Amino acid sequence: MTIRTCTAADLPAIFDIVNDAAQAYKGVIPADCWHEPYMPMDHLRSEIAAGVRFWGYEGDGELVGVMGIQDRGDVDLIRHAYVSTVRRNSGVGTSLLAFLERQTEKPILIGTWAAATWAIRFYEKNRYRLLSREDTVRLLKKYWSIPERQIESSVVLASPRWAG
After folding, report:
1. Nearest alpha carbon to residue 97 among 66, 59, 62, 60
2. What distance in Å separates the CA atoms of residue 97 and residue 93, rounded to the nearest whole number?
3. Which stretches of 4-51 are DSSP H helices?
């Protein structure tokens, strides 16, 4: 097991992991928010250009999970946390999250789809707390650049360092 920073050479693997893992959203998130591929390569590149730094979990010589972190001034955001379907529930996500938590002293916020109950449970199991609807809307508008429809369908969870 190795956790390492991802490079431009990892873009195809990141793309594959994100779009493989995101299949879990199909039929769960609002239909008008789903598209194929879930994250096109140009969107992945624009997220990196906007400051999302991806870290990868390497197992058996290949990336099997990725998680991004984005500095937003007074907080860091966990962005695009995905584990290959075949490696799900094997500790990859927990390892990546714990690693990224050690990279910052700031509070961490995580946004996810409200209908992604498995993701919410994962973060709650890792000591994150679900924020109120009012705080969710305010924080999504302040720290994320996402469409209004996604704001309506999302939740925000906060690390124990978050004072609110």
Report:
1. 66
2. 6
3. 11-21, 41-49
Report the C-alpha gap between 66 and 154 in whole angstroms. Answer: 21
Task: Pick the closest to residue 67 from 55, 76, 58 (CA basis).
Answer: 55
Alpha helices, DSSP H only, in the chain? 11-21, 41-49, 92-101, 117-125, 133-143, 148-152
pLDDT in tens, 73-84: 999 999 999 999
Annotate 95-107 with b (16+ C-beta within 10 A) or e (fewer): bbbeebbeeeebe
Confirm whether pTM is higher than 0.85: yes
Return the closest-CA partner of residue 124 out of 158, 151, 91.
Answer: 158
Q: What are the boundaries of each domain within the chain?
A: 2-158
- How far is CA 64 from each of CA 41, 92, 94, rounded to the nearest angstrom? 18, 8, 13
Cβ atoms of 57 and 3 closer than 8 Å: yes
2-158: what fold? Aminopeptidase (3.40.630)
